[in-house]
Fold this sequence. Notes:
Blueprint: H1 10-14, H2 19-32, E1 38-39, H3 51-62, H4 75-89, E2 98-101, H5 104-115, E3 121-126, H6 131-138, E4 142-147, H7 158-164, E5 169-175, H8 187-198, E6 204-208, H9 224-227, E7 235-240, E8 253-256, H10 259-270, H11 278-289, H12 293-314, E9 320-321, E10 329-333, H13 351-362, E11 364-365, E12 367-368, E13 377-381, H14 386-401
Parallel strand pairs: 1-11, 3-4, 3-5, 5-6, 6-7
Antiparallel strand pairs: 2-8, 7-8, 9-10, 10-13, 12-13
Amino acid sequence: MSIDIQRLNQRLASAQPSATYRIMDRVADRRAQGAKIISLCAGEPDFDTPKHVREAAIHAIEHGHTRYTQVAGVRSFRESVAAKFRRENGLDVSWQDTLVCNGGKQVIYNALAATLNEGDQVIVPAPYWVSYPEMVQLCGGEARIVMCDAGTGFKLTPWALAAAITPQTRWLILNSPSNPTGAVYSETELRALAAVLLDHPHVLILADDIYEHLIFDDQAFYTLAQVEPRLAPRTLTMNGVSKAYAMTGWRIGFATGPRWLLEAMEKLQGQQTSGASSVSQQAALAALEGPKDFIRESRSAFQARRDLMVTLLNDTPGLECVSPAGAFYAFVSCAGLIGRTSPAGRVLHTDEDVAHALLDEADVAVVHGSAFGLGPYIRIAYALDDASLHQACEAIRAFCTALR
């Protein structure tokens, strides 16, 4: 009698690893072999964490803020989070209406794990962040993908939303600005979606606002519970410090929403990771309460990089790039490359072929758009200095020009 000791949880066994991290692993392997790769796949700012935030972390260490914290977060930080939601998003919340997690990803996972049962559906507009459908599946739900192509600006329309809702719909996940497209929902567009949601009181809403401060061309940012307060009792508004303050490695995410949901998420987190890092919470508090020069400066830098990338990519044979309104990603159509053959003899049948060929033959790493639910596209993260971006685009152009 044989025993299958390597048997895995069925949900985990059927889940897919992150496509972004798979590409990053390939980059690490190539670099270990001596290749000089320009990586345009990592979703994190290339700037250092602001000095006053780093100093706050050092102060916290030197003054003994190195112990366990409450699962839901240190009260002083939760008060700062609530003040942020009131000040920047017009949400009437107190510190008791907040939860601090180990990164924004844990906020989303905890919300889904705390609420999904077998047969529950989660509406996920595509293109989507690669982790949304996998987290839904791991938590026992079914991701109901709604395609949102270039014709709608990669955004969910009220008609598509209404058609996707069923009696089994438990959540809608809405990400603005979007990873991977940089699409941003206007106040008018959110109001139109809210009108649909008001007719379906069984649907919860998860607003992933992690790129909130990276919006270009002087556009204003709006979140769903802000434009339609009647949805607040069933909306989880998620944010964090990773993108706005270049604090990806500090692992701090936070949310506000109905207390019954936050209490369930806290209960789950208490048996999972417990509270977030005490030092990181003190640093994040300094970020939220300190000067905002860094946000303005980094946003300006990213906007200039966006303009550079859009120009260079649209000058490349076979590529088309719509100017993104936010975040630091360009979602680039590579339809003009499909079916062609690379200088090394690789036939480009798919956008994934394009991504691997660029890495192997041009020493530039990008992520294929089909990993985000829509091909043939490639996602390019322009969170690098201008010289590196110029070099990467020159290499991409040389590759595309040499195709036959």
